[in-house]
Each structure stands twice: as C-alpha cells, then as structure tokens.
Amino acid sequence: MTIRSDVPRCVRSADAWVQVTRGVAGSGLAPGRTYPCPVSTIPTLEQLHALGGAQQPTYRDPEALAQAVARLRKSPPLVFAGECDELKEKLAAVARGEAFLLQGGDCAETFEGVTAENVRNKLRVLLQMAVVLTYAASVPVVKLGRLAGQYAKPRSSDTETRNGLTLPAYRGDAVNGFDFTAADREPDPARLVEVYHASAATLNLVRAFVTGGYADLRQVHTWNTDFVRDSVTGQRYEAMAAEIDRALTFMRAIGADPDEFHRVDFHSSHEALLLEYEQAMTRIDSRTDSPYDVSAHFVWIGERTRQLDGAHVELLSRIRNPIGVKLGPNASPDDALALAARLNPDNEPGRLTFITRFGAGRIRDGLPTLVEKVTAAGIEVAWVCDPMHGNTFEASSGYKTRDFADVIEEVQGFFDVHRSLGTWPGGLHVELTGDDVTECVGGGELLDEAGLGDRYESVCDPRLNRVQSLELAFLVAEMLRKA
Ligand code: PEP
Ligand code: CO
C-alpha cells in the first residue's frame, strides 16, 4: 500500500483505486468511500475480463491460475520504467524521421530455445543488420528484440483437429505445449511463471552480450564481411560492405574510438496478449507514480486484439511504456484515429507506433489513405512495416511459409508510399532467427518449397533465416539510400 504524498487524502489499495480516508472540504469526496484514483491506475483482472478479452486461454484450475498470478506479482521487474522512457525517447526520434527502428525475433519463442547459442545467434544477426542499416540510413537505428517474452500466440481457431481428434490449439509456450496430446495441449497456468524465468534468463544474456564486447562495432562488421565473402548471396553486397570498411578504417586512422563502438542499446518487446501475465507484471513506478508493464520495454497489441473497447486496449491505455499496434488491411483510417485517441490522448511523442502488415499485394493501395489521414490529424506516430504477417501462405507440402520476394515487395511498397507522401518510413518489424533454418522460400539461396522440410523449426510462423535476414538488411539499405 502506497500513501501518495502529493494527495494526502488518497491511499492506493492493491487494485489501484483510492480510498478517501479524510474528507476534503469543498472536494465533494467523503471519508471512507472509494473513488477512482485521479492518476492513471492499473485496471483489475476482473475489470479486464469484464471487457471480454479476446484470444485468452480457458484455464480449468482457477486456484492454480491465482497462484501463478500471485507469484508473478511478487517477482521483481524484468525491465525498469526508466529504460522504457529511454526507449520512448528513441521512438520519438523515429516518429520525427531522425532514427530508424529494427524490431525482430521469433514469431514464438520457446522454453527449449532459451540457450546461449540460440539467443546469441539471434542477437548477432540483429546487430549485423543494424550496422548495415545505420550506415545506409545515416541515422541511429533503434534495436528492439522481439524476444525475452514473446511466448504467447493468438490463433485463428481455439481448437485443432487431426485424424478425428480435436484438442486445444497451441497458443505458445506461455499457455500450453506444442505436442499434439491432450496432456500437452491443456493450458497450464504454471507456464506463466516459466515465461517470467525464461524471459529473465534471455534478457540477462542479452544485457551481458550487448555491454560485454559482443556488440563491438568492428566485430559486427567483421561478421558482415565474412557473410559478403563467404556466401553467394553476400557477394552482391560487396560494394556496400567495402564502403563501411573504409568508414571504419578512417575512424581508426583519426584515432576515434567512442564508447558507442563497443556497446549498443538493446531493448525487449513482445505482444501483450495474456491478460493475467501482463496485468500481474504491471506496477506503479515510484518515480512517476504511473503504471508500467515491466515485462518488457515495449509491448504491442496484435491485429486480432485491437478492439477499441476490448481488454488489451484498456490495459495498454493505462501503462506508460512505449507501445505498438498492428494494423492489417482491414484497419480503416478511423480505426487508427480512434486507437490513437484511446492509447495516446496526449499525443506524447514516441508513445505510439503503428506497425502495418498489409501484404505485398495490398500495401500500395491501402497504406496511403491510412498514413494521410493520421498525418492530417496531427497524430505523432512512428510508422513501422511488418512485411511478414500479410504474406503467409501454405506450401503444397503443408508448411506455412512466406516468399522472400513478397517480403521485399512489401517493404519496397512501404518505402514508396512514405516517400510519395513525404512521411518517414520509420522501421521494420521482422520474424527472423540467426540459424540456417528453411522456413521462408526464395532469397539468394533460392530455397524452394521442396526444401522447407530440411530444417523447419518454427512452432508458429515461418522466419527469415540468417542469410535471408542479412540479405533483407542490405536490400533495405539500398532502399534507404534512395529514400
Ligand atoms: C505476430 O506478430 O506474430 C502476429 C500474430 O501478428 P499479427 O497480430 O499482425 O497477426
Ligand atoms: Co508471427
């Protein structure tokens, strides 16, 4: 229980409503009555569920769920509110056209995937991409992992049927197991606590890597030159790699060795999907007396949970983190304006990022009106392109896949639309891994549908592999230089 020093009549209870302990003359507030807190408060789980949260699992054991939530409430924050504010400032620069965002990682992280090698490979590819993009964009690249918390998935159907057997759909390791057995598919609240620990371990490793020499610019550039030298795909980008090389050699020659060469800022993000987890991880920050979701620096609302009067919009409207909203081809400009009004009523710079995911075939038609109307309304927003989720299809072999050419085509459409409107194409949101998986077809290595089965490891959407991710970075670098 916190007693607010600036409003002595308020005592904040656990669910963040205020109890008036002393009447204040002329205020109309009576002693002993409960009123909504005058500052932003954390909605209770009951209030959220009353709004009908979409995409929530059905837990059979309410007692076990309550225990998991209680455990999470007691757990230390994974990130600090001040770090979220720093990221918000960086995203304000993205919105102003003074920085570029690179957000990437798995579609769905798994508990199995919490290994040093997996996290390191993902981080390495993101850092490699960031160097190329920074050079081409000539502005800072904000590095945001889709990791350390990306364990819950929205699904198009609640159930899955195989050979006549119907079981709950896999909703991510945060909810249930991937194996198609009744035991595995049963939603288990204890997994929420495991998400916390898996996220903590991942974030700890990431923090150590990015400050402990692994993110050294010359080291990262050496990996890029290896890629350019050793792969057929890479050889096409020799000219740009050589330019970066000359820039670094020049810096060395003049004796420049700033701190920024040896460490990078890196932040975490995931889709805020599970109300129990995100609400339990939302805390009042003692500096500002405001709620922050301390499960990640940045959280976003997915295409399937962005209902204006729904629980996800309600919860994220209360927290002070920088947040994102995915907007698909069915999002109207009015939807975007209403979301901005709900989620960022003060038009705070850096607070809101719109992540568009139209699909390669629809972005050139759909995006212009959306950007135009939002811009005309004076709304401060960072525009980011997710070229993955509008381009998924099922290969004849049954694998869910994406064509690298469609991904590039959507990014090109995104750049073209923003260029023609005079707005800033603020960044990229991609599903990728640092490993040599075979999940998306195409790219310089010409992976075809028959090759998908070689190393298909994603438990959800197909990711760009290491080479495809680097190729994407070089191609986007070329677009940025023309932008
Ligand atoms: C995702 O990002 O994995 C996802 C489910 O995206 P969307 O909400 O855009 O469909
Ligand atoms: Co996905």
What's the alpha carbon Rg, rounded to whole Å? 23 Å
Label the structural class: alpha/beta
Helix count, per DSSP?
Answer: 15
Report low-confidence residues grouped into runs of 5 or more: 1-17, 23-27
Ions, cofactors and other ligands present here are:
phosphoenolpyruvate, cobalt (II) ion
Strand content: 15-25%
Oligomer: single chain
Helical content, roughly? 25-40%
Number of strands: 18
Main pleated sheet: 8 strands, parallel, barrel
The main sheet orders its strands as: 5-6-9-12-13-14-15-18
Overall geometric form: globular
Chain-averaged pLDDT: 93
Amino-to-carboxy terminus distance: 52 Å
Structure described in brief:
With 483 residues, the protein is α/β, with parallel strands linked by helices.
Keywords, please?
single chain; 483 residues; alpha/beta; 8-stranded parallel barrel; 4-stranded antiparallel β-sheet; disordered N terminus; binds phosphoenolpyruvate; binds cobalt (II) ion
Walkthrough of the structure:
- With 483 residues, the chain is α/β, with parallel strands linked by helices.
- 39% of the residues lie in helices and 15% in strands.
- It has 15 helices and 18 strands.
- The chain has an eight-stranded parallel beta barrel, surrounded by five helices.
- The radius of gyration is 23 Å and the shape is globular.
- The protein starts with a strand and ends with a helix.
- The N terminus is likely disordered.
- The structure holds phosphoenolpyruvate and cobalt (II) ion.
What is the topological layout?
Blueprint: E1 2-3, E2 10-12, E3 17-20, E4 34-36, H1 45-50, H2 62-74, H3 81-95, E5 100-105, H4 116-137, E6 141-145, E7 159-162, E8 165-168, H5 182-185, H6 190-211, H7 217-230, H8 232-235, H9 238-253, E9 267-271, H10 275-280, E10 282-285, E11 290-293, E12 298-301, H11 311-318, E13 323-327, H12 333-343, E14 352-356, H13 363-376, E15 382-385, E16 392-394, E17 400-402, H14 404-421, E18 427-431, H15 466-482
Parallel strand pairs: 5-6, 5-18, 6-9, 9-12, 12-13, 13-14, 14-15, 15-18
Antiparallel strand pairs: 1-2, 2-3, 3-4, 7-8, 10-11, 16-17
Helix pairs in contact: 2-6, 4-6, 4-7, 4-15, 7-9, 12-13, 13-14, 14-15
The structure holds phosphoenolpyruvate and cobalt (II) ion (CO).
